[in-house]
Write a sequence for this structure.
């Protein structure tokens, strides 16, 4: 019998995702979008936010208030605890002010 | 009933949109429209700049519209949201709901606006009359409260 | 803000009425319109005949409009109600409310329609597609209930 | 000292009012409007309705359900107990169905 790959094998595959930023999050980060490899241990939106904050002062400023910035995975709103499994595009933005 | 959703830089025409929703029908009893305009804020505002998340803006408004269509017996539902620079007095957003009876049309249009405000990925920045760029408009607690009325 | 009230046999033009309410202003943030149309009732209706009490129709709608204007911070308020024969698909009634913010505009337009339905002296009679004259339309309990929401 | 006229003196003056009827009230009465002298003892809208019902079968049919027909005095809605003092135009009609 063949054995199914262990979950850890999937996690070891480099996960490349597109990050997109809007409004003052975009301005503070200094980028509209970028492609990143998610490090091991970054499994949720909040993990990703905390990792991004370590990258430089722009990210740190953008995500200074972790509860303020909103996130979407593949163009649907998600909460900070959402898992990144299979995510292709992760967006960060301020609370919406349209309408 | 398939909702019509458009995200566009161009202005829109309320009368033409109502005519399109009503064409060939004689079963509509109620049409409610909401038009959101850019205010000049006592003369201090030169323009609003509307940034949006292309793709998600359409998708999210479509999700809100599907929720409305499932909740009220609608004959037509439309939402148009502009992006780019909008001057005071210009139109920003349009919602139209049609139904046999007025209650469904009023509630669906009201619901659409509350949810569109809090869920559609748009952000407004102020360009001031003195030539400077003002800040990003802050989200209001009252908008979250308004959306919470429906749940 | 003086409400505009018109009782007329002729049809009306929503876009022209909104334009008139908005002319020269840049402080309006929200425009809500309600248009009531004649339904064909599954093809059984040839026309509605609208009888009204001249003088009191204007006076009563004006009283309702004054109540709305005192209750919500409106920039404009308009009500037009037609009388005479109206064919399916045609417009019967129009309410427009404008304000700085959407909640006032939505609530005032909704209130106007609920009160107009139960207080404005108009009566509908059906003319049927088979050539006969149907009965007078009966008032609905749900209209009284809708008006009672506001008190 | 002069004495104020007694209420009975005022009530004795013939009170001429215009009555107007709408929709099926008009059809049953058979008139769109008429001028009438209010008899002594007719002081309220309900008094007037009860007097009108005695005039003929059309009025009786129109006002068969005393709680259904609505009234207005000088173009303002009133309740059945409203007094007719000073009224010039009294209207009777079914519940409204506009809008």
């Amino acid at each position: 019998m063949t054995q199914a790959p262990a979950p850890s094998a999937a996690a070891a595959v480099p996960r490349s995702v597109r990050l997109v930023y809007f409004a003052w999050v975009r301005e503070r980060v200094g980028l509209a979008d970028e492609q990143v490899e998610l490090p091991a241990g970054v499994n949720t939106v909040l993990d990703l936010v905390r990792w991004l904050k370590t990258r430089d002062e722009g990210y740190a400023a953008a995500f200074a208030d972790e509860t303020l910035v909103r996130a979407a995975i593949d163009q649907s709103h998600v909460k900070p605890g959402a898992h990144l499994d299979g995510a292709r595009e992760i967006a960060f933005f301020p609370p919406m002010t349209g309408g | 009933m398939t909702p019509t959703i458009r995200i566009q830089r161009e202005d829109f025409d309320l009368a033409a949109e109502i005519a399109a929703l009503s064409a060939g029908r004689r079963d509509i009893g109620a049409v409610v429209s909401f038009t959101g305009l850019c205010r000049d804020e006592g003369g201090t505002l030169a323009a609003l700049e509307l940034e949006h998340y292309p793709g998600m803006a359409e998708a999210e408004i479509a999700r809100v519209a599907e929720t409305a269509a499932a909740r009220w017996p609608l004959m037509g539902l439309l939402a148009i949201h502009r992006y780019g620079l909008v001057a005071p007095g210009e139109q920003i957003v349009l919602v139209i709901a049609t139904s046999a009876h007025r209650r469904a049309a009023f509630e669906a249009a009201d619901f659409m606006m509350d949810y569109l405000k809090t869920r559609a990925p748009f952000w407004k920045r102020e360009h001031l009359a003195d030539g400077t760029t003002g800040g990003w408009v802050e989200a209001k607690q009252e908008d979250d409260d308004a959306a919470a009325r429906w749940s």
Summary: Residues 4-148 of chain B form a domain with the Aldehyde Oxidoreductase; domain 3 fold (CATH 3.90.1170.40).
